[in-house]
Amino acid sequence: MVVPLRAIINFIIFSYLTLAYTQFLLFRVVTHHFNIRVIWGFMGLEYFTQLTDRTVQIFLIFNHEEDSQAFFDTSLIRCSLYFIVSLLLPAIVVERLCACYYLKDYERKRRGHISFVILLTISCLGFVLSLEYHRVSSTLALHISMVVINVIASVVNLLIEKYNYRKLRECTNLNKSRREYSLAERFQVSENIRTCLMLKNVVNVVSIFNLLSTVTAAMDNFDLSITLLNVAATVFNACVLTYGSVTMVVFYLHTKPWRDFTRKLFAKVLLHHYNVILCNFFLFSTYFLYGNAVQHTTISYE
């Protein structure tokens, strides 16, 4: 039990560090539209709450406290956050649909009401679905509906990508273009394509974790032993935590200004440590040379 527990602790620490650094980059290096930064910030807050809740629940399972009130409370929080995180991919897709609709001036105007309405909608839906989750006798329909919604969002994301590639060809081929595109429109088309490619990679990478989490969560509908259900709950927690960490890493890898900032930051930190080491070496050498010289002079004088 020591090795798995130690591995879980290391992974939790890595997840917290990954989340903290990506959120720092999100607000320190402004590279995306206001609405998508708000949604990503909400995603980071949701993942932090989810990470803390699932960490507590994992340790409760290891301590055999499945029947405690704390375990029940963490299960309620887990259920609410599960539906919210399942709706985050469709939320970003809806935001990109708005970016395509307001193509002419979306890059210049914030339109903060878009992100507010999207986040309010998925939060309310997540809360309502979590209440329904504890009322119905079988939750299979809810799990299947989440899978269907995310599949539809993935298909819509591919359609948005193709649409913006067509717009990009019109922007670059002025002879066949029906009208002239401004610099703001061209920038927005490029950002739409970059975001769609990032979402597509997120779906490709975390699909296996999403499938495993759905299957293990649906096991509550069957008459299984308490040990098997606890194992399923642990696998579910690990899959969702991995889902969040991998998503943050994919966001980082698909944001070039973040990588450039990180490279400069590490170079600055390494240069600072190099200067400190060089300064200490110089002081030590000076003290060693001149200290011995002063000592020999004092001895000779005596």
TrEMBL record:
One of its GO terms (cellular component) is membrane. Keywords: Membrane, Transmembrane, Transmembrane helix. The keyword Membrane applies. GO terms for biological process: sensory perception of chemical stimulus. InterPro entries: 7TM_GPCR_serpentine_rcpt_Sre, Serpentine_rcpt_epsilon. The chain crosses the membrane at residues 7-27, 81-102, 114-134, 140-160, 202-219, 231-253, 265-290. The keyword Transmembrane helix applies. It comes from the Eukaryota. Belongs to the nematode receptor-like protein sre family. This is G_PROTEIN_RECEP_F1_2 domain-containing protein. It comes from Heligmosomoides polygyrus.
